Amino acid sequence: MTDPLLILAVGVVIVVGGIIGLKLHPFLALLLGAFVVALLTPAEAIQQFALAKGMSESAAQALAKKSIGERIATEFGVTCGKIGILIAMAAIIGKCMLDSGAAERIIRSMLKLTGIEKAPTAFLVSSFFLGIPVFFDTVIFLMMPLAKAMTMRIGKNYLLLVMCIMAGAAMANSLVPPAPGPLFLIGEMHIPIGLMMIAGTIVGLFTITAGYFFSLWANQKWPIPLRDSLDAKLEDIKLIAAKEDHHLPGLGISLLPVLIPLVFICADTAINAMSTPGVPLTNSPFINNLLALVKFFGDKNIAIVTGGAAALLVLASQKKDAKGGMTPFVQAALASGGSIILITAAGGAFGGMLQQTGISARIADMTKDYQMALIPLAFLIAAIVRTAQGSATVALITASGILSGMATNASLEFHPVYLGLAIGCGSKLVPWMNDAGFWIICKLSNLTEKEALKTISPLLVVMGITGLVVIMIGAKLFPLI
């Protein structure tokens, strides 16, 4: 029972069986799965995993000697550290935008431009281009309140809007720099960043088009209504939807909670792309200080906190007579956000324990001598690693590490950018309970686990496979060498 594949199988049965079969709360099922996986993982595997990550011999031995509880708690804390502030503040932003009428104002303005029929397309394209400079989870946090307000406005297509947001944000996150995964990939495989940005955008538009048509079909087959939640009660949304325009905040004010984090994060990304570590970007002290200020607010946690402050100010301006001030609104938002943080962090702990089994190295060893075309091979390796341990970024890193030598091979019949794109598309397959992003989209949208598994998971599969087909055709027709 020391084979990582067998341990993975046991973990899958416990988590999926616990949630769907035994109706366990996801937090408990994920922690139980993490405990059993950690219990079955030998110390040697943990040590090898740590060494492969670049730890020293002594640090690797120390990790292997840690108790199961310590290792689970560490991974739980690491995930919570990454997403805790983001989720808490995003819950506050969402609640404030819904209750202040800011989301309703944005939706009414969007419908004037696109019309009701094209609203899902607007969500799809907006999420894709937002997902290039902004982290995937941040896009979901910013767009979900708009999806709820839009559904209340048009009275239908909630699942379609949710899937359009997911489709756009997910594909940009793995295909187009400066998203973290593609940035690592182009460095490992020596792909020019400009070429990856252009090619990733082209492939991404093909994949989200396929995702859109699948979303239309899924929305017709499994229509899912907008449901009550602690931070977004349907009665409150209905009351806001019935308001006259002059009772809503202005469009510019309404956009501030979204635009402030977006602008600062994008500006920080641009500054990082142009600067060299340790070297001032300009000779002007004033400009350098200004850029330092932008970088301070460009940190994703500080940016989202600033957006939350703006959202609270917008809400305060609309709820001047509210009893108890802003406290009741914030408490309702945090009650919802706290649950999401716990489930997502437990998912991170489960995925972290799977990684410590050495599952990525095991898959790399199985595929190193597999004789097949390189592009499908790159896709397959990334897809297997992603499905096995839940992280798209780990899948990108693993697959690019395996194939980086082949990418620089002089006899390669096409540009290595196609290998990078194949890895990016493969890293989308298959999101399930070991993926923190799965829980974020599931809980923010109020989809049940079963609903998410039959809609969100196949959506990513459809888009990933579409990307593979487009990449293979592109490599044949436009080898770029």
Automatic annotation (TrEMBL):
Signal peptide from the UniProt entry: none
Keyword set includes Translocase: no
Membrane topology label: Multi-pass membrane protein
Pfam families: GntP_permease (PF02447)
Source organism superkingdom: Bacteria
Entry similarity comment: Belongs to the GntP permease family.
Protein's name according to its UniProt entry: GntP family gluconate:H+ symporter
Organism: Larkinella arboricola
